[in-house]
Specification:
There is one protein chain. With about 130 residues, the protein is α/β, with parallel strands linked by helices. It has a single domain, classed as Resolvase, N-terminal catalytic domain (Rossmann fold, 3-Layer(aba) Sandwich). About 40% of the residues lie in helices and about 15% in strands. It contains four helices and four strands. Strands 2-1-3-4 form a four-stranded parallel sheet, with helices on both faces. The termini are far apart.
């Protein structure tokens, strides 16, 4: 995973594309600035339109054409925490750099973060159980 401290510009020599996966086009420039990269370094902007757009991103990742993904928050990957973690893990396996504006300390090797997200996922699942008075 790629994380950058504030004010540090990262020069990437990777020939693979940088994709911004966002809710609207205005977020792409905002994410590029937050990631300390030039807006022109974003090769493609994918506007979230549901599963089809995420599938398009995943297809590009598995084709090996993506080197870095910029996202505003993990929730854009889906509402389920476990699905988010699975997507992130698959990207790490493919050596995809990930910049998440809302979680700048995102790291697959952070056991505490994974533990907290696991607990939150369990709480979310528990909340889906219907209550019978």
């Amino acid at each position: 995973m790629v994380t950058q401290p504030e004010g540090v510009t990262i020069h990437v020599t990777d020939h693979r594309a940088t994709i911004a996966y966002v809710a609207d086009t205005g977020q792409a420039a905002e994410l590029a600035a937050a990631a300390c990269i030039a807006e022109s370094a974003v090769d493609k902007i994918l506007i979230d339109a549901g599963e089809d757009t995420l599938d398009e991103l995943q297809d590009a990742v598995y084709a090996g054409t993506v080197g870095r993904v910029l996202i505003p928050s993990l929730s854009i990957l889906g509402p389920d925490l476990m699905a988010q973690e699975a997507i992130l893990a698959s990207w790490v396996d493919k050596s995809i750099g990930v910049f998440c504006r809302d979680e700048p300390d995102l790291g697959a090797d952070d056991p505490e973060r994974r533990r907290v997200r696991s607990v939150l996922g369990e709480i979310e699942e528990y909340g889906k159980i219907p209550w019978v008075p």
